[in-house]
Amino acid sequence: MVESENRIYAIKTTAKQERTVADNIEKVTREQKDIHVMAVMVPEELKGYVLVESPDSIARIEQLVELIPHARAVVQGSTALSEVEHFLVPKPVVSGITEGTIVEIIAGPFKGEKAVVKRIDSGKEEITVELYESMVPIPITVRGDSVRVVERSEDIS
């Protein structure tokens, strides 16, 4: 086989089955030596899609999709790595959270409590909050992935 430039194909999947499809692609390509897949990527931001890097034609990727449960179709055309590179860089957990934002704590002893963000430490990916309905304002430091934004500070009038 002549090595050609790898292309990136988007495979449409059943909702919330992206990880399963990615695992199955790896299993099938191990058994089917004639289908070449260099990498599989499941970006968090791209719900319902799996990205596959391969030197093969789109027809070969369509054959691969037929062998995999929950894989629906290949999006027509391919793309270059430069167009999907931004998915490879992890975003900080605290990005999008600003001081004054109202959040709900989703983990830990204060789970379910609403709080106001007072300080953000993006280096440690932690935020300091004060519980919303507390009589005495006590600052609590929690990890950025332990909160869910309820209301952004721009929305508050």
TrEMBL record:
Organism field: Methanoculleus methanifontis
Pfam (any one): Spt5-NGN
SUPFAM superfamilies named among the record's database cross-references: Translation proteins SH3-like domain
Domain spans labelled NusG-like N-terminal: 5-91
HAMAP family in alphabetical order: Spt5_arch (MF_00950)
Record-given protein name: Transcription elongation factor Spt5
Similarity field: Belongs to the archaeal Spt5 family.
Subunit structure, interactors included: Heterodimer composed of Spt4 and Spt5. Interacts with RNA polymerase (RNAP).
GO molecular function, one term: translation elongation factor activity
Keyword set includes Protein biosynthesis: yes
Keywords: Elongation factor, Protein biosynthesis, Transcription, Transcription regulation
Superkingdom of origin organism: Archaea
Summary of the function given for this chain in its UniProt record: Stimulates transcription elongation.
All residue ranges annotated as the KOW domain in the record: 96-123
Hydrolase as UniProt keyword: no
